[in-house]
Amino acid sequence: MNMNNTFDLIVIGTGTAASTAAHECRSAGWNVAIIDSLPFGGTCALRGCDPKKVLVEAAKVIDSTQRHENKGIVGSEGIRIKWSDLMSFKRTFTEPRPKLREDGYIKAGIVPFHGHAKFTDPTTIKVEGENNNNTDNRNDIILTGKHIVIATGAIPVKLTIPGSENIITSDQFLELPNDRLPERIVFVGGGYISFEFAHVAARAGAKVTILHHGKRPLEHFDPDLVSQLVQRSKDIGIDIRLQTEVNRVDKSFYSHDNSKLVVHYSSYVTENGKGNASSRSLEADMVVHGAGRVPNLEGLNLVAGKVKYTSRGIQVNEYLQSVSNPAVYAAGDVAASGGAPLTPAARYGGTLVANNLLKGNTMKSNYTGLPSVVFTIPPLAATGVQEKEAKDIGLRFRTVYRNTNGWASSKRVGETCSGFKLLIEEGTDRILGAHMIGPHAEEVINIFSIALRLGLTAKTLNDPILYSYPTSSSDVVYMLSK
Ligand SMILES: Cc1cc2nc3c(=O)[nH]c(=O)nc-3n(C[C@H](O)[C@H](O)[C@H](O)COP(=O)(O)OP(=O)(O)OC[C@H]3O[C@@H](n4cnc5c(N)ncnc54)[C@H](O)[C@@H]3O)c2cc1C
């Protein structure tokens, strides 16, 4: 322990961005402190990607068995998800994490602090209620850093509607203890978290509704492939209501145990596309927040730190350095850096920040080829530009768009929803964007992500590369053949 609490680097957060930056700076011999107010590990490992994927894998078993009914498998109706067992299995991943992560810091020589971090001046951090070793002794500790990295992630956007206290967060959804999921679940918002959870919940037997304010959900994904996913979602019983706005969530008057809810919403879809919004309501046993996440700036006292921010996050330059306080860098979901709030971007941001701290500002951020996946069943994946965006910025390209549900890679697993869209630049033959839905799209997208990142042409991806066969990746050859 550094006795005078002065460090080369103080890192706030213990998620992907924070851990990457802390370890890389420590490896270079820096004296590093790291702070978190929650159990160590961050969102992805404890409350996001990793636990969610455990649930998705279970839902995939149900879906796969159903898809193979009459194709050599019988009895698919008998299988079900036992939610409480699935939660226990999930906890085998999440529960060991905080200690493993802390042990890793200690072994590397990074000094851990448990408590809420806030700036008291541009290079000083107060850790409120610090309780190292998880004892009951809570003290405020003052740390001084030559440099500070803010990697505090994101939190669900605050819903200001009456009854918002009746809406649970994704964190709570991932902790539901019962043997079965509640019967009727409403998701507020049609982003990727809602769709992923909705697909799990539907396979677990719940009646699911998604209420989304826009004309189409999953706005960051290709509209044609989203339409395919919407149809597939409807086919498994998910009710998707677009152009709706949730106004209120009440406890049901008729519920004797107070457990039933009524979601009041306005629908802007009218019979003939004209007229005023109509007021509607929907009964539910659980309502889940899927209306988006915002950078977590809560209680950081950024004004004292002379750190400029907006609602989009900490304002940083292309080196991820604060535009107002040169001692401070930010990475991951909290930084307004131009990267999407996803784990690969957080890891990359952590590496970039470490490089720029250790070597001076030598690496500019570049998120080209960042892949993004909706882990529905089947998954939807994208990298690079969307078709409309490419047109808007005047790129010259050809589009290859195909439905692939007749291809062997889909047919042999009974998947009826699959397709892809590629945008290939005229003249250079470079891949500008790749969008796909279907079995293993979450893996195949990485091939296109590499192509985008390295500026590879469509011909290069097709010609000298040898893909293992028969795999979904080997479909890349057919996707690119003229
Ligand atoms: C349900 C869900 C599913 C997701 N699925 C995926 C997915 O499949 N793929 C993907 O790429 N991304 C996914 N994401 C997003 C991904 O989890 C985030 O992009 C990523 O974890 C961000 O990492 P980070 O390092 O920026 O911050 P985080 O991992 O969020 O870490 C921030 C840490 O800072 C701590 N902290 C905050 N403020 C303070 C403070 N003042 N003092 C001390 N500590 C503080 C927090 O407690 C937290 O531990 C998902 C997110 C959610 C919620």
Describe the structure.
- The structure is a single chain.
- Strand 24 (419-425) and strand 25 (431-437) form a beta hairpin.
- The longest helix has 19 residues, at 49-67.
- The model has no long low-confidence stretch (mean pLDDT 94).
- With 482 residues, the chain is an alpha/beta fold.
- It has helices at residues 16-27, 42-47, 49-67, 83-94, 97-108, 170-173, 192-203, 223-235, 343-359, 387-392, 408-411, 441-454, 458-462, 475-480; strands at residues 6-12, 32-36, 111-114, 116-121, 124-130, 139-150, 154-156, 167-168, 184-188, 207-211, 239-241, 244-251, 261-267, 278-284, 286-289, 293-295, 309-310, 313-315, 328-330, 335-336, 372-374, 380-384, 397-403, 419-425, 431-437.
- The relative contact order is 0.12.
- The strands form 6 sheets. Strands 1, 2, 3, 4, 5, 6 and 19 form a 7-stranded mixed beta sheet that branches. Strands 8-15-9-10-11 form a 5-stranded parallel beta sheet. Strands 21-22-25-24-23 form a 5-stranded antiparallel beta sheet, sandwiched between helices.
- It contains 14 helices and 25 strands.
- 29% of the residues lie in helices and 26% in strands.
- Helix 3 packs antiparallel against helix 4 and helix 3 (49-67) packs across helix 7 (192-203).
- It starts with 5 loop residues before the first strand and ends with a helix.
- The structure holds flavin-adenine dinucleotide.
- Flavin-adenine dinucleotide binds at residues 12-18, 35-38, 42-44, 47-49, 52, 116-117, 151-153, 170, 193, 296, 299-300, 332-334, 341-344, 346, 375.
